[in-house]
Amino acid sequence: MTDPVIAPEPQNPAPVPAPHASAAEPANGAVAAPQPASADSGAVGTEAADGTPARAGQGARRGGRNRRGGKGRQPATAQPAGAIAEAGAVPQAPRQTGGPRRTHPVLEQLAGFYPHLFGAQFLPLKRGIFQDLQDAHPGAFEKEDLKAALGIHTRSTRYLQVVAEGRQRHDLQGQAVEAMAPEHIHHALLEVFRRKKPRDGEDLVAKLRRRIAQAYETSGLTREAYDALVRGRDERANALLDEAFAEVAERDAKAEALLRAYEASGSTSVEQFADMYGMEQRNVGQMLARARQLRGPAAA
């Protein structure tokens, strides 16, 4: 299955605003096309039409009471006509029961050709995938339709999630061919968390900050180099980035202190050292590896 062509999801109170849309999209030559209108766009007309029979039914009941000389029980559903018309003009999300949501026909085709990329599980697409698809299927796709379909696909939450995880970009054969750029991972993270709806008691801002810190550490870049790639113009996003940098700096200081203690201890193994300090061996190993990584550029 591929992501449906629907209107943008309702936004929860966002920890950060949306990043630049092109950050997570493959550089495929496809201009980011506006999303086609949803099949649910006719909901307003449906709701309004539903209101008309309701008023007619109420009129019939009132006529019946008049024939009985005004006696009879007042219907509980009676409302002023203006209120009914107003309610019918505003579609409510729970009432959208118009059947299954449509998927862009080109995305259906792509899922058939490349289920490993556009099927149940998504993979990040290599840059230039637009031209690759045209070359692989000459005449199969209208150029503008293919652009629109790829734009919908790469803006979908499911696609952004795999980009935010830092997975490599893949070609049409499903082979990993290119590392995901740190700035694309960062902007995908911001957008994914902007769209999330928090559960009860869930702190999405703290989760996003940890994910940013993790992405920064995984990049292997210095703070200055990473900052130059990902910092934008939004103050809230930049504040989260600074907080993530501070968290990583604190952890790095602890890792460096632990490495010095390990070197001075005379321990012959990480396991022995971890037992000596009552620490978990896995955590000690990760901290020592991080400290050695940080020493590398300085030693060089």
TrEMBL record:
GO terms for biological process: post-transcriptional regulation of gene expression. The keyword S-adenosyl-L-methionine does not apply. Residues 19-33, 73-94 have a biased composition (Low complexity). Signal peptide: none annotated. GO terms for molecular function: RNA strand annealing activity; RNA strand-exchange activity. SMART domains: ProQ. Residues 98-208 form the ProQ/FinO domain. Residues 1-103 are annotated as: Disordered. Pfam families: ProQ (PF04352). Keywords: Chaperone, Cytoplasm, RNA-binding. GO terms for cellular component: cytosol. Residues 62-71 have a biased composition (Basic residues). This is ProQ/FINO family protein.
